User: Fold this.
Amino acid sequence: MAASERVDGRPVGLWERAGAVAVGVEVAILLVGTGILVASWISDGAESPAFSAVLVVFALAIAAGLVAVARGTWRGKRWPRGAALTWQLLHLSVAFGSRGIPAWLLIVLVVPAAVALAGIVSGAMRANAEAPR
Assistant:
């Protein structure tokens, strides 16, 4: 079995690969944002160190989960679809619901989410279309 094939022998599609890469980009954005928060807390002093620590641990746990989702999507697995779809919808709702966010940051947040959504949905549609009837 080639690295570009699923267990059932079907090749992994280009959009699915793009979706996996987009989720990886989101992981990088999440880690950079967490690093910026930690640097801010260190320089300015956190009001609640316990809350700050929990927030960092939570962000790292989400990043680890998204890495697993990206790897599963890259390999053409079905199980990451639900987690990826849920994350993208949460991600987009927070991005569009944030007031006063600069346009460039909105683009940085929305483009990977849109590509990931397209990749996840196209993979599901393709699997459904190729399923034996």
About this structure: The radius of gyration is 17 Å. The helical segments are 14-44, 49-74, 80-97, 103-130. The chain has a mean pLDDT of 87. The chain has four helices and no strands.
